[in-house]
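Appendix B, example 12.
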Amino acid sequence: MSVIMNSARPKYRMKPILTVDSYANGRLDSRVLSVSTVRGLKLNVVSVRKFNALQATAVQNGIALSSTGDYRSFAQQEILLLGRYDRGHFPNRKDYNLVNGVIWSLKVGASMAAVPGTSNHGTGRSRDFAEMLNGDTIPDSLSVKTRQWLAANSPGFGIYFEVPSEDWHGTDFAGDDMSLAPRVVEYEAGQAGPIIPVFAPAVGQFSLYPFDPSKATLRLTDPPMCSDLVSYMQGVMRVKMGYAIMVDGWFGQSAHDHTVWFQASHGLKADGICGRKTWARLDSFA
């Protein structure tokens, strides 16, 4: 673990979550899982409160905090193992797992994964944090500023970073003991930050996109650009502006023309290129 995260190392033993701890790892019932505000991923119903409050507070402080991994079922853990490890023993590999008496060797350049049924993602208490950059979520990489903010703030939400090699991996250590997560209680009492919806731009749910100041430039190309960032732009125009534009994620001629109309209506250079100034105006409507 980097020196930056030292203050966010666990300060106490992980506290139980009675509604969850009776389940086998990776086999949580849907009734004890809840959709997180980040990208529609799931955490257990107790831990999700802590992560949602932490994320909303981060956004309020100008940090576009997102996630690339929350609860992982047993089947998902198996898929991760198969994708990152080779069956058999290969000398000089970085990591090895023993699964049902069989050795698995980490593939060169791959990130480590737990033996299925032992992952700390399998209880819905852990999250792999990420940041949004240029309209995309960047896995396994947090800026120094964001790590400093998490190190200083996450313990107040009951969240600690216990994996030495993964600065992005946070875990709910407070569990049912909310006295160990005082900032969650404060947040929920006063809603001291924005609630971030899952990403569904066609119905006006934009997740973290309005808070990301460094979005990529969109323009008409051949073939056309296609991404969630385009869907966000189209969603704002359709839901917030009333434009008759499809939310399909393609920056084709229709998206170009609507961008020109939007720019002309708001005192911007009407070139059909969605850059910094156009994004700033669109974000204000979102």
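The two ends are 37 Å apart (CA to CA). The chain is about 30% helix and 15% strand.
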